[in-house]
Write a structure and sequence with these properties.
Elements (H helix, E strand, L loop, with lengths): L2 H19 L5 H14 L4 E11 L2 E13 L3 E6 L6 H14 L3 E6 L9 E5 L2 E2 L1
Parallel strand pairs: 3-4
Antiparallel strand pairs: 1-2, 2-3, 4-5, 5-6
Helix pairs in contact: 1-2
Length: 127
Amino acid sequence: MNENEIGTIIVDTAVQLHMALGPGLLESVYEVLLAQRLQKAGLKVARQVPIPIEFDGIRFDEGFRADIIVENKVIIELKSVETIHKAHKKQVLTYLRLTNMKLGYLLNFGAPVMKDGIFRIINGKIV
């Protein structure tokens, strides 16, 4: 399964979850439930994955934590906020760069309508 196929499942699952629960719950609730639903869809899912960073000969094994990584190919960063800021998108870009993955999603479950809370981020480009 390629990144785009995985992404389609992620987006569909996030929309269904948002429709069922609505906005405003804690990120951790959406994280657990989204991960569980993706696993039920047959995908390999890891939560709170450490992303190491190396700089100037020093390695930080837990420089960052990705909320969810699916099939070791797609990073998902979850938010439950009223407004997404540039820093949130840059966070996903940084994770992609550090892991050499091609595709990431910033999913804001705080949006009134989920389609307005989905940001697809590819190889350093926000789409």
